[in-house]
TrEMBL record:
Residues 403-413 have a biased composition (Acidic residues). Residues 400-428 are annotated as: Disordered. One of its GO terms (molecular function) is RNA binding. Residues 14-350 form the PORR domain. This is PORR domain-containing protein. PANTHER family: PROTEIN ROOT PRIMORDIUM DEFECTIVE 1, PROTEIN WHAT'S THIS FACTOR 1 HOMOLOG, CHLOROPLASTIC.
């Protein structure tokens, strides 16, 4: 890549706490997802707490850390005592199971959109093919199901072709035919909306991007001029074949740099949550003509992208599309995003609320049992008075008498069954 871009190379990196806080929650949900997969892989989807601690060490947790971790999220994990073995077991709560099922249904329902996203991703590559392993690693970001090789690729032979490369022994996904109707970028649709709103005064946005600098970012006079020039610079579309162009001129290299911005912008637009890790973008670097130093390159455009280092002790870099978010919320949410946010809401729920719920359930159970005993006793006493039985003995004496047989028949087993059903409804 050329070093003659009009944007200054060394820019002060300004943190945006909205995205960093988003990643702090993401860090907790990633750990929760690891435990969920571990529990769901066990027989009956339950696991002894002692075995959970042993298996959690393979996930990077220290000794005795797994038990303390699951206790922090009582709305996701439930600890109970086995009725026969009398040892502690761990399982997912009903709310967690509902969230998992909702996310599965959302992913299956949007498979047609996932097919379109995969087609556009392949069309952005220089030869119309990408490694299957690279797409498998990033399948969650693009909303692809876990079995996308079968449910998306092999089920749509009119769009995709799966083959093994003899020289590298790697599986590749190749586009069968390029569709011109899919070559319209998301930024081009945004420009069209702005052009319709502003009319003839929107000539300056023909090659421009939506720029929203983070709070505290200093914009000097010369930087503003450089940005104005860069916004008006023409570039080639990410879907355009540039293999036959001459790249030796400075003008061509500038266009290639701006094309790299457009390519990453379009890749983020194809993701479900408008974000993806920098390491997964690097997997597509050679196939999409992206620069080597991706982090430094993206830091030159802090108004378009934001790189967050939160979430994995600074080892993981998450790239956000700034125009896709407003106040740490997705501007155009989808069903998959909403289902994943429900898990974050369960993680953020206070453990005290779960404790209060359990105490309330226990109080209601005791109250129901207490009311049942009182109603049974009062009912017997009333019957004894009506039939002329003196209330000198206890309740057992009354029930053993001939008159007490009528009293017992009035209190049937159906009443006990109704109390049990009400008890189940109270507990979730």
């Amino acid at each position: 890549m050329s070093q003659s871009t009009s944007i200054p190379k060394n820019l002060q990196r300004v943190r945006d706490h909205g995205y960093d806080n988003y990643m702090e929650v993401e860090k907790k949900t990633r750990k929760v997802l690891k435990f969920q997969e571990l529990i769901l892989s066990q027989f009956n989807q339950t696991i002894p707490v002692s075995r959970l601690d042993i298996l959690a060490r393979r996930l990077g947790f220290k000794q005795h850390e797994a038990g303390a971790f699951v206790l922090k999220f009582p709305h996701v994990f439930e600890i109970y005592e086995h009725p026969v073995q009398r040892i502690l077991y761990c399982r997912l709560t009903r709310k967690a199971h509902l969230q998992i099922e909702q996310q599965k249904r959302a992913v299956i329902a949007q498979i047609p959109d996932a097919v379109t996203r995969l087609r556009k991703l392949l069309m952005m590559s220089n030869n119309g093919r990408l490694r299957l392993e690279h797409i498998r690693i990033a399948r969650s970001e693009f909303g692809l199901p876990d079995d996308f090789e079968y449910s998306v690729v092999l089920k749509h032979p009119q769009f995709f072709r799966l083959f093994d490369a003899k020289e590298t022994r790697n599986k590749y996904i190749e586009i069968v035919e390029r569709d011109p109707s899919l070559t319209v970028c998301a930024i081009e649709r945004a420009r069209e909306r702005v052009y319709r709103e502003k009319g003839s005064d929107a000539e300056d946005i023909r090659f421009s991007f939506v720029v929203n600098f983070p709070p505290g970012f200093k914009i000097g006079k010369y930087f503003r001029i450089a940005m104005w020039k860069w916004q008006r610079l023409p570039y080639w579309s990410p879907y355009e074949d540039i293999s036959e162009y001459d790249m030796r001129s400075i003008e061509a290299q500038k266009r290639m740099e701006k094309r790299a911005v457009a390519t990453i912008h379009e890749m983020l637009s194809l993701t479900v949550e408008k974000k993806i890790t920098l390491e997964r973008i690097a997997h597509f670097r050679l196939a999409m003509y992206l620069p080597k130093k991706l982090k430094d390159f993206l830091l030159q455009h802090q108004g378009i992208f934001y790189i967050s280092t939160r979430g994995n002790h600074g080892k993981l870099h998450t790239v956000f599309l700034r125009e896709g978010y407003r106040r740490s919320e997705l501007v155009e949410p989808n069903d998959v995003y909403l289902a994943r946010r429900q898990l974050a809401e369960l993680v953020l729920l206070s453990p005290r609320k779960a404790t209060v719920d359990r105490e309330l359930v226990g109080y209601r159970r005791e109250r129901v049992g207490y009311d049942m005993e009182n109603s049974r006793t009062d009912y017997v006493e009333d019957k004894s008075v009506d039939f002329g039985v003196e209330n000198k003995g206890n309740v057992r004496d009354v029930l053993d008498s001939d008159i007490g047989s009528d009293v017992e028949s009035d209190f049937s087993d159906d009443d006990n069954h109704s109390v049990e059903v009400e008890d189940v409804d109270i507990t979730e």
